[in-house]
Amino acid sequence: MEFRILGPLEVAIDGAPVSIGGPKPRVLLAGLLLRPGAVVSTDRLVAAVWGDAPPNDPLGALRAYVSRLRAVLAPLQHGERLRYQAPGYVLAVADDELDATDFARLVTEARDRASVGAHGHAVELFDAALALWRGDPLAEFDCAQLNADITRLEDLRLDASEDRIEAMLQLGRGHEVVTELDALVRRFPERERLAAQLMRALYGSGRQAEALAVYRDLRRRLVDELGVEPSEAVRTVHRQLLEHDPTLVPAREPATNLPRPTTVFVGRDEEMRRISTLMRDARLVTLTGVGGVGKSRMALEVVAALDRSRFPDGVWLCEFDPLADGSPVSHVVATALRVRQRHGSTIEQSVIEYMRSRKLLLVLDNCEHVLDASARLAADVLAKCPGVVVLATSRELLGVHGEQVWRVPPLCVEDATTLFALRARTTQPDFPSDPETDGTVADICRRLDGLPLAIELAAARMRVMSAPELAQRLDDARLLTGRSRTVRPRHQSLVSAIDWSYRLLSEPEQQMFARQSVLPGGADLAAVHAVCAEPRASETETLDLLTALVDKSMVVATSSPGGTRYRVLETLRAYGRQRLPDSGPLARRHAEHFVDLAERAARGVQGPDERLWVERALPDVDNFRAAFEWALADRDIDLALRLVASLPEVLQVRIGYEAAAWAERALEVAPEDHPLFVAGVGAAARGAWFLGDFARARGLAARAGARVPAAGTARSGYPADVAADVALYEGDVDTALRYYESQVALARRDADPIRLSWTLYYVAICEAVRRTPERGLRAAGECLRVAEAIANPTATSMAHYALGLVLKKSDPRRALALFDEAASRASYVHNYWWQGVALMEAAATRAIHDDVAAAAGAFVDVLDHWDRTGDRTQQWLNLRYIIRLLVRLDAEQEALMLHHYLMAVGKVSPLRDHQAGGLLDGPDGPRSRAAAALGSAMPAVHAVRLARTRLSRAC
Fold first, then answer.
1. Residues 83/76, Cβ–Cβ less than 8 Å
2. Quick one: which of 239, 379, 589, 676 is 20 to 30 A from 726 by CA?
3. Sign of the alpha-carbon dihedral angle for 241, 244, 248, 252
């Protein structure tokens, strides 16, 4: 049973709403739920239900309503749900039945994590707690007897919000909570802790003047209205602001994409200690062992116990499960690191270049089926990235010089029986612990060779049989102890365990399990239903089958921003593929579904629900890749072009340019008269433009001739737009401006607001680049109005950026606010390219008109942003801004070295000849040092490293 009081009163049984009746039984239940498990006096309940006008027989009337409640509330497993206990009534509520109890538990756990410095985990727990709130608690009731308890709940919510914000500040993420804090301070103007937090958040965002204004407003209010000064804690923050105390902006925790384990890890303490020791002395450690022995989980536990300060640039998990045998691994690594392919480099070279100057830990999981590619990557890392440590898991060693190998053994009997019992109790909470049962379980674990996966699969069966029955079934079927001349004994045991679990499934469950093997990386319910279900089955029937498979440990359900996803572990997925007699029809269903999803997402990201569609589509990159490869292999050019024409706005500005390469491959075999040929050209050309390969972008765009794609095409996928952007970046601004002005007229004629906002944006940008920003004000203003009318986050981000750019010189403070807003809106929808240009212009504006130290810190973030995304064109522009800032900081030597790096690659430097000429000739001067550096590596690597080092000292 579920009781919800963190919002309007709701009651449900197994998810179905329960009708409690009219206002009086509802207020009676609310009064009991506010004090669950405690005696609530009849006097208090009568006053809550009837107020000052009770009936002639209030106790009798109360008993009648109590009787009605008993009739609709589900009984407890043991004891009464609602009982009389003098002087009133007690409502028994289990720990997991009341949302307020769940809220209190999560908040307590969050505060415990925060108290030991685990602020990232604390934020996750606070978010989960606050997500339980659906509005004001029990807002439908207004009686004095309940108001005090309702106010207490509201205070707990506010306290939790403050604690969450504090954890965000400790993580160095104050810029993310400025808007939330500003609203809270306005709502609770005398709450000093909120004001102090807003001051710190604003300061950490480079907005010191606004932070000081918050203090002045608070002090004026307290003195004028209450006659008191702010507390010592608030005054301390004020002093720190004035003194630029560095402790106001904590160092950020190293980033990571490691999942948080959902089950207890059993045993292996000594092994973990020894592996950790190996990782202190070696830069490549490989955990090997048979399938199902627990290599992946062991790696995650070892990493979780390491000192993360050794890896200031993060700990990154790269899962190779979804890759086909022999596939390249670099795209997976690039996605994990959020690195994009750089101009003039392969994706492999881009990944290595990004890691070359960083200190991070790379976890390469499940390398055995991509062994050669994994070994090449590991060898390159060891040779070229001295600050990177690699922890790999594989059934075979990688065979790389310097590799340290640790063979993960099966669990000992004691740990194996503990694991079995823990997993059994997840489905059978009263699983017994007695000498007879423990002995039987130990025997089962021995015969399963101590393999964790086999043990977990077997333990899942405890919901339907006892341990002796399981042991007997193993004897009879001999499924877990079969022998093979060609398969190692322990591997044979695992295959038998899977086979045995598979045979215990019903026929529909077996069919659903096998069909899910065509979904690399898993999928959501809609995709599983579309691809794997019987033609006439309902989605509810598919969910029932998935629930059964999750219960039986054959499918894993995980939560993501886009909803729950269902995934078959790779070992089980390989087994499932063997159970499919013909996967061809399923592969077509798979491709058609994900092409349809890509098309719907392409439309969705141009509307107000952009974030929803992004978070729905991004987890399916592996499925998009599989769909494209199948379509191309089956010569279904229409399906391939539909996919690549849909992905520029969905993937390219968010995770990289792999899909642009798909578009080029599709164009090689597509007929030029295909309706989507031009959109495919636009997708390929835009990818080349993002990588800074302007010659290729221009050549690809020319393949479209004078043709334009159909209305609704991704805004960044018009071939002629790409050609105009190349002209703009190469200095031919007038050509780009004339083109976009003509496109504005066409967009107005066609009543296409998304196209209109895009073209108006570029008109404003061209005017700003021509140094006539006042002429771009009208276009920027209209762009913002159009974007806000369609409520698309990326469009509004672009519009804020355009308006900021044309106001940058005349109204820098307003421009700065516009850039910050643009970056925030782009970040909200994971649009990292638009976020990057907004962050860069904000940093440049701060460098001229704001706090120089804050600008230096902002530029460090922008350096890392473009280094990660691989956009070399934007990075060179960023370095021009940094040179100007270094001159202001009297860092002339570093500025001159960056000047020479720009000149070496044919880029324009902001330094004039007379500025750069003074220190060119000495044997140890900047030119000589730059030339020496350029002889050993690409200029970008040295330039970024030098800029980051010097700016870090400045901030």
1. no
2. 676
3. positive
Spatial distance between the Cα atoms of 819 and 805, rounded to a whole number of angstroms = 8
SS3 category, 575: helix
623-834 classified as CATH 1.25.40.10 = yes
Instruction: Decide if 765 contacts 802 (C-beta within 8 A).
Output: yes
Tokens of 778: 């009208």
User: Is 269-407 the same fold as 1-171?
Assistant: no
Q: Which residues of 462-475 are buried (b: 16+ CB within 10 A; e: fewer)?
A: beeeebeebbebbe
Residue 669 exposure: Cα atoms within 13 Å on the Cβ side: 14
Q: What is the pLDDT of residue 514?
A: 92
Phi-psi group of 94: left, alpha or beta (phi > 0 → left; psi -120 to 50 → alpha; rest → beta): beta
DSSP string covering 758-800: HHHHHHHHHHHHTT-GGGGHHHHHHHHHHHHHHT-HHHHHHHH
The DSSP call for residue 191 is -
* Residue 361, strand partner residues: 315, 389
Q: What is the edge-to-edge ordering of all strands in the sheet holding 388-394? A: 315-319, 360-365, 388-394, 284-288, 404-407
CATH code given to domain 173-253: 1.25.40.10
Rg from Cα positions in the chain: 31
| Nearest residue to 661 via CA among 676, 644, 649, 678 | 644
| Pairwise CA distance, residues 268 & 265, whole Å | 9
Q: Is 21 exposed, middle or buried (0-12, 13-18, 19+ CB in 10 A)?
A: middle
Low-confidence ranges of the chain (pLDDT < 70): 76-79, 251-254, 262, 290, 474-497, 571, 850, 912-942, 954-955
Neighbours of 673 (CB within 10 A): 6
Cβ-proximal residues to 292 (8 Å cutoff; 6+ apart), any chain: 451, 452, 453, 454, 494, 497, 571
The torsion angles phi and psi of 75, rounded to 5 degrees, stand at -70, 160
* Check whether domain 507-581 has CATH 3.40.50.150, yes or no: no
Between CA 407 and CA 415, with CA 412 as vertex, the angle to 5 degrees is: 115
CATH 3.40.50.2300 fits 269-407, yes or no: no
pLDDT recorded at residue 571: 67
For the packed helices 753-769 and 777-790, what is the interaxial angle rounded to 10 degrees? 150
The whole-angstrom separation of Cα 889 and Cα 891 is: 5
> Both tokens of residue 745?
């007229």
What is the C-alpha separation between 532 and 452, in angstroms, rounded?
29
Over the stretch 895-951, which tens digit does the pLDDT of each residue have?
888 887 777 777 778 886 545 554 444 444 555 554 444 444 455 566 777 777 777
What is the secondary structure of 446-501 as a DSSP string?
HHTTT-HHHHHHHHGGGGTS-HHHHHHHHHHH--SS---SSS-HHHHHHHHHHHHH
pTM listed for this prediction: 0.69
Q: Residue type at 641?
A: L
- Our measurement of the distance from residue 291's CA atom to the centroid of its chain's CA atoms, rounded to an integer in Å, reads 29
Using DSSP's 3-state secondary structure scheme, residue 841 falls into helix
The secondary structure of residue 267, as a DSSP letter, is: S
Q: Does domain 1-171 have CATH number 1.10.10.10?
A: yes
Supply the DSSP symbol for 176. G
Beta strands (DSSP E) in 662-783 are none
Q: Can you tell me the distance from the alpha carbon of 312 to that of 563, in angstroms, rounded to the nearest whole number?
A: 31
Task: Tokens for 644, please give them.
Answer: 């690549």
Query: pLDDT at position 34, please?
Result: 87
CA dist 668 and 703 (Å) reads 12
Q: Which residues contact 872 (CB under 8 A, 6 or more apart)?
A: 342, 343, 344, 691, 692, 866, 940
Distance CA 663, CA 644 (A): 5
What are the domain boundaries of the chain? 1-171, 173-253, 269-407, 413-503, 507-581, 623-834, 851-954
